[in-house]
Design a protein that fits this description.
single chain, Tetracycline Repressor, domain 2
């Protein structure tokens, strides 16, 4: 009750507080893959509309804002008790729980509206509630399953698939493989990130792969997921449109994944943030930039 009262008495939030709430800088993980999905769709679509790309970007940003904002709201009590997260915007009183929910609701509305003009079949519009169910529902999965990392991966994996669907109105084997690659990539690096809270999660009865498998087991599974990711990216590259730049990007991305796993040890988590943010951010930009350049060449 005291915590809720503290949230209600928060000062008027600043725009910067909302940017911090949703970690706008972390958009760098999924956005390059969404743009790659758009580029693949553009190459295969029979017709294009000028508004497709800006609307896809709007969908990407608002869906992610809604997902992150809802996650912060759903976890607000746990964040307050965890020393690592106690200074996040809601537990710190910078943003009230009510303001966070209003922010989430506004982004959900804009997301759904932005999907309506995409493709004549309105397929993206009809599937938009399903996408929201996945990305918002993830926040509660850690209450009952250690597979929560895969749900997060599914949410990010929808980005390139949705962008492709927005342009073409249909699915294809390469875009499904790309979406699965993002799923495995995300589940793998989120497992690494969750190592920081394994003791806290055990105390609170929360679920994660580090809690279920221990640090060594979780890191081993993360390696396996990233091997699968690399294999799926290779499958995408076997379609006729892909050439040397794509394979260069895939090789660099694979090398960055290897480096990520060299940074983190079961007994040494001091470089988790470097492994989580820096390597994955660089990897997604490098791979997708080269893949898109290959498509345009």
């Amino acid at each position: 009750m005291g915590f809720e009262k503290n949230c209600m008495q928060s000062t008027t939030p600043r725009v910067a507080d909302f940017f911090s709430l949703v970690k706008i800088s972390h958009t760098i993980f999924a956005l390059p893959f969404a743009i790659l999905g758009f580029a693949l769709g553009w190459m295969h679509a029979e017709a294009h509309e000028w508004w497709d790309f800006p609307l896809i970007l709007l969908c990407m940003v608002t869906a992610r804002n809604a997902a992150m904002g809802f996650n912060r709201w759903a976890d607000r009590r746990y964040d307050r008790q965890n020393a690592r997260t106690a200074q996040r915007e809601i537990p710190a009183g910078k943003i009230s729980g009510r303001a966070a929910l209003a922010f989430v609701g506004a982004n959900c509305v804009v997301f759904i509206m932005a999907t309506y003009p995409l493709n004549a079949s309105r397929l993206c519009f009809y599937l938009s509630p399903v996408a929201l169910l996945v990305i918002l529902g993830y926040s509660y999965t850690k209450r009952f399953t250690s597979l929560c990392h895969f749900v997060l991966g599914l949410g990010l994996g929808l980005a390139p698939v949705g962008a492709y669907l927005a342009v073409t109105g249909s699915f294809s084997a390469p875009i499904i493989c790309l979406g699965l690659a993002v799923l495995c990539w995300t589940a793998g690096f989120d497992t690494i990130y969750a190592l920081q809270d394994d003791q806290f999660d055990r105390q609170q009865g929360l679920h994660s792969l580090p809690v279920a498998l221990g640090r060594r087991g979780a890191l081993a599974l993360s390696v396996l997921l990233h091997v699968l990711c690399a294999g799926l990216i290779a499958l995408v590259g076997y379609q006729p449109a892909m050439g040397g730049l794509y394979w260069l990007g895939a090789a660099l991305f694979g090398g960055i994944l290897v480096y990520q796993h060299l940074l983190v040890k079961p007994h040494d988590l001091s470089r988790v943030n470097l492994a989580f943010f820096t390597t994955n951010g660089i990897g997604s930009i490098v791979f997708c930039t080269l893949a898109i350049a290959d498509l345009l060449a």
